[in-house]
Specification:
The chain contains 14 helices and 13 strands. The protein is α+β, with helices and mostly antiparallel strands.
Length: 394
């Protein structure tokens, strides 16, 4: 017997396979059909996929969309990942309050002045990481030799993770992204939470100039620190490393753009952020009330997938969005979301990307891919897909 759900288009996550730097044909077809489409998720549940810039931006400003669901046990899932499950709170008001509190604790760590003061240290980390990478010789894997360790070192210093303990983060973070191993992912999530909470307890006695220290000084419990720091580590690390990789792939395969980019790195970074498909770009959220949008009614409790990649490639919002153009202006992409969901770490992320590209292409002016771009492979990682590796030479 055929059900209504069987007739819905299955949303393909493309977790593995050849590199794609623009939305798939399936997603482009859905975007052409409607701004909000009913789909079936990889987990087998029904959801609303928001495909166009205007509607994505509208929902990101709507407090009726959030992380809560009145019955988490039966809530529809996107990829059935523990990282998503832990966001479900059976109380809409409590979820909104928790979100606002987390932002209040984190935002002071990413002010313009603080990020400006951090930049010299970010430059030092980039230089020393590149020294070690170059010493290993060419060809080499940029992801494993530079992008990931650079992002990890900066994030560890920011959050307050001792450098000699950073290896304690890696295994649980890898486990958290495993959508095909739920038990292992839950173990990883628990281990990462426990370690962050352990750090919080330590910072109460020995505070420093870091995120965890400031959070505990402002009243956060060990458990709250554990949840927020774990999310910050998981999301921030993978996103920065992936955008460095994909930015290098874009800049080296568009050599006419590279010199232009180096002359105006802030603008170039914005285009990399818009054009590079780095990670699972659909943000899963739930409606806490009925919402009329895009000609449909999203019902209370429905799963809503807000797709940033599609929004960034919407022809109604960007001129010729499939063209990679480091001089693009304006460039109001939604990679860092918007409104109440705007990434508080965006200022530091921009600095990290600027420093990474400047360091790489200034020190290694002949940096280029060691394989044809068509051979680059995406790795599976659930919510944080990226390149499986980036072979480069110089």
């Amino acid at each position: 017997m055929t059900t209504s759900q069987d007739k819905l288009p299955l949303l393909v996550t493309e977790q593995e396979g050849l590199l794609r730097l623009r939305p798939s044909a399936q997603l482009r077809e859905l975007q052409a059909q409607a701004p909000v489409c009913r789909v079936r998720t990889p987990a087998g549940d029904e959801a609303w996929l928001v495909t166009r810039y205007a509607e994505v931006k509208q929902l990101l400003m709507d407090e009726r969309i959030g992380r809560s669901h009145l019955d988490p046990a039966t809530a529809p899932r996107y990829v059935d990942s523990p990282l998503m499950d832990m966001l479900l709170i059976p109380d809409h008001e409590a979820a909104r309050d928790a979100h606002k509190q987390a932002r209040a604790w984190l935002a002071p760590n990413f002010t313009a002045r603080r990020v400006l003061n951090l930049r010299p240290r970010v430059e030092q980390v980039a230089a020393s990481t590149l020294d070690a990478f170059v010493e290993s010789g060419a060809p080499a894997d940029l992801h494993g030799g530079f992008s990931f360790p650079f992002a990890l070192l900066v994030l560890c210093e920011l959050i307050g993770v001792p450098l000699d303990e950073r290896d304690r983060l890696l295994e649980p973070m890898q486990q958290m992204g495993e959508v095909d191993n739920r038990d292992g992912a839950e173990d990883g999530m628990g281990a990462l939470f426990d370690y962050a909470a352990e750090l919080a307890a330590h910072k109460r006695e020995f505070p420093g100039e870091d995120v965890i220290s400031r959070m505990v000084q402002n009243g956060a419990t060990d458990e709250q620190v554990g949840a927020i720091a774990a999310n910050l580590l998981f999301a921030g690390l993978e996103s920065i490393a992936s955008h460095i990789d994909l930015g290098v792939a874009l800049l080296t395969t568009h050599p006419e753009q590279r010199d232009v980019a180096l002359a105006n790195l802030p603008a170039a970074v914005e285009e990399v952020l818009r054009a590079a498909k780095a990670g699972g770009s659909a943000l899963p959220r739930y409606a806490s009330e009925d919402i009329e949008i895009g000609g449909v009614t999203i019902r209370d409790g429905d799963l809503v997938l807000i797709d940033f990649t599609l929004a960034n490639f919407d022809t109604q919002a960007f001129d010729d969005p499939s063209r990679f153009d480091v001089t693009r202006s304006p460039n109001a992409h939604l990679t860092f979301a918007h409104g109440i969901w705007h990434c508080v770490g965006a200022p530091l992320a921009r600095v990290q990307l600027q420093v990474a590209f400047e360091t790489l292409f200034t020190r290694l002016p002949s940096l280029r891919l060691a394989v044809p771009v068509e051979e680059l492979q995406m790795r599976g990682g659930g919510l944080s897909d990226g390149l499986g590796g980036l072979p480069v030479t110089w």
